[in-house]
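User: structure tokens for this one?
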Amino acid sequence: MLFDPQNPINQLCARGMMSEGEGKPQEAAKLFSQAWNEAGNSTEKFIAAHYVARHQSTVADKLKWDETALNLALEIDNSELKAMYPSLYLNIAKCYEDLKDYVKATENYQWAFQYTVFLPYDGYGDMIRAGIKNGMERVRLTHTEQED
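Assistant:
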């Protein structure tokens, strides 16, 4: 199982999420960094990188960690992981959008959309689909405004 609750890296990330929920972002960031430093394989590194990205102080740093998480995920041969691709590409697209690189933002929103076939039809899947749709629309409107 990819997200084994007994895995020490997953446990560190779960503790980090608890810290986030308690309003302790510095503690969360420390736990996620510890998870990254202790990760022993690509799956553990992917999971840790995904959470480390959440606590970066600049969009460029967040993008670096989001791309690290995606690249690690793409290396892992696990069909369960494909449901994470839309979210990973969505995060990257949003970073490029924030950096005003609308070409790369569009490209990553399109990749995110292509992988939505792996999303479940539930609250999570609906949230990711809406994020992709909204991002694509924002980028389209920004391009239209820049051309005028």
